[in-house]
Amino acid sequence: MDERFTELLARFLKFANGKPITEDSDLRALGLDSMQSIELLFAIEDTFGVMLPDDEMGDTTFATAGNLWRAIAAELPGETGAVA
């Protein structure tokens, strides 16, 4: 996962308390609610210059940090969506 992504994501996770964010991090358990998901989506679009497709807006995408990163990475030019 990109360092910019984990730093951005951490700002929206009220229960992360400085814990490392891994691809398996449960975003809901770390405090991401539906309103924050929308704000996070706008921040992702601004930071990475991508728009996530409507079919990526479901609970599965926002379930874990890895799922969300794969959705972002798939929209980045030259990316494969792999979690690094």
Describe the overall structure:
The protein is mainly alpha-helical and 84 residues long. It has 3 helices and no strands. It has helices at 3-10, 34-48, 65-75. The termini are close together. Helix 1 (3-10) packs antiparallel against helix 2 (34-48).
How many DSSP E strands?
A: 0
Which stretches of 5+ consecutive residues score pLDDT under 50?
none
Assembly classification: single chain
Helix-strand category: mainly alpha
Average of pLDDT = 90
Shape: globular
Elements, N to C (H/E): HHH
**Main pleated sheet:** none
**Helical stretch count?**
3
Radius of gyration based on Cα positions = 12 Å
Roughly how many Å apart are the termini?
Answer: 5 Å
- Beta percentage is under 5%
Helix content: 40-55%
What's the SSE blueprint?
Elements: H1 3-10, H2 34-48, H3 65-75
Helix pairs in contact: 1-2
What's this model, at a glance?
The chain has 84 residues and is mainly α. It has helices at residues 3-10, 34-48, 65-75.
